[in-house]
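User: DNA-binding transcriptional MerR regulator. Structure?
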Amino acid sequence: MIGDVARRSGVSARMLRHYESLGLVRPTGRTAAGYREYSGEDIRRIFHIESLRSLGLSLREVGSALDDPGFTPSGLVDDLIRRTRERIARETELLTRLRRIGAAEPAGWEDVLQIVALLQALGAESAAKRQRAALSSVEEVPAPVEALVEAVLSETDPNVAGALRWALARSGDDGLPLLAEGLGSPVAEVRKRAVQSIAEIPGEEATALLRSALTHPDIAVRGWAALALGPRGVADAVPTLVDMVAEEANDADAADALSALAGDPALADRIATGLVERLAPGVVDSSARRRLTQALADIPGTTASRALAELSHDEDHAVALTATYILKLRDVG
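Assistant: Predicted structure:
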């Protein structure tokens, strides 16, 4: 009887009737009283149906799997894997969106709708729309920090990236842990965006993170960190900045950062010494020696002046001319 089968299988009588109407289950026969009669094989088929349904198969797919002798499960399983991954991705995206909305602490449904609209705009195809969203996240609707970090780490348009960094810097230092994770990304561009974003965030925590980035294995990350630390007065950046001048890696900006650091009299001689050590003949090529000599121009103190005086008689004519010109400017000053 259907009631007995329902109790034994755990499948409701209503669902058993539905299976029968679809042709998935066919009772072996009926009793004299007209009740459905299920054999042991019928009950095993019911269990097979439930097992396949637990994998996410539709009832139509279950029927094909059980009745088609030529049915091969590999293709269907691959399709189920694909659909499951897509579902997980959708659910993960929804969870992320909900977490961001919750982090913004909306006061009412109007706030929720505004935040949703902002999140959608941050992911828009139009660069102009993304830029407006970044600006409005400061001026109108506060954006969840997590959303800003994700946006800035993935943004390729320089204007939008600048707006996002500006917005992130004004949200405080809550985004620093996520940006620190960005420094560990396997993608070089993401690491660059992370350190550039950290550089625009004021405060001791950002400075500490930039200081730690001076030992990063990515030379570009070290360079951007050093450029940001120069104006912050962090002496640890000096060796990296000197290397950048010598290697022509943002050398003009590196020289400016060294000049900013040299405003501290205690650092001026240290910077000059670092530049002079790289100027020794045979250490770097001629063009690098000229750049290092030029960098001495804005370094005050006797160490820099003595070095320039010696370089004015250098065997490299271009270096000697550069040093002589700088000395004249210093005398005039």
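The chain is about 70% helix and 0% strand. The mean pLDDT is 86.
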